[in-house]
Amino acid sequence: MNVNLFKKSLKEIRVSWPSYMVGLLFYVYLLISIYPTVQQRSAEIQELLKSYPKGFIEIFGGGSAVSFTTVEGFLSLEFFSLMWFVIIGAFVIGYGAAALGKELESGTIEILLSQPITRTSALVTKSLNLFISTIGMVVLTVLATYVFGLVVGLKPKVDGIVALIVIGTLFFLAIGAISLFFSVLLGERGRAALTTSGLLVSMYFITVVAGLANWDWIKKLERISLFHYYDSAKLLSTGNIPAKSLLVYAGTAIVFYLGSILVFRRRDIAP
How many domains does the chain have? Predict the structure, then answer.
């Protein structure tokens, strides 16, 4: 790792990351603060959810154990599913695509590598900032739900919070690694971000269709989707950390990260 490059990379997000977090935490507080009111009508809302077509909740990533009678079910459907994917995913994909894609696209990568730094060291340093900011964003967001919950008199399950932090962190690290891989493979921020987003949207679509339809082939195809192994409602309500989810997310992150290193080491950086 190169210390000077690490400091420079931190400066690049010294405004965007804190600003992003302030807005995100404020949104979390708003959700938590309105739950006591929602809880008073939870029975009515639950009956309404039951009237929806089978698999409808899966469209929003609510998972199998969603219930407005508990704060865990409410947070799962209203935040720790589709909304969380979009908000944190947008940051992770954008930052991952720009980690080295920015230098490759502008041609300044040659200036960077003219310094006493290897390609591997440059990628490791840039990706370290990506992973640290991703971990921080996930951990702070999830912990905020617990802290804000205590403020308004709610007590989300501690083991559920821990389980969501573990799986959520690995989930977004996998997305970051995929975005980083396409940034060094394609050499353009826009193309890398678009490709990663398109891949994730396709996975999400497969998971939604698998929840709505009873086709064997789509059920089998769903196994390639990262979203298939994520169920925030179950994580928050049970506190159990599925071994399969750990292996899939950790494996995906490692494979794409190592792939990024191999591709970047062999890539022609000449304009």
Answer: 1
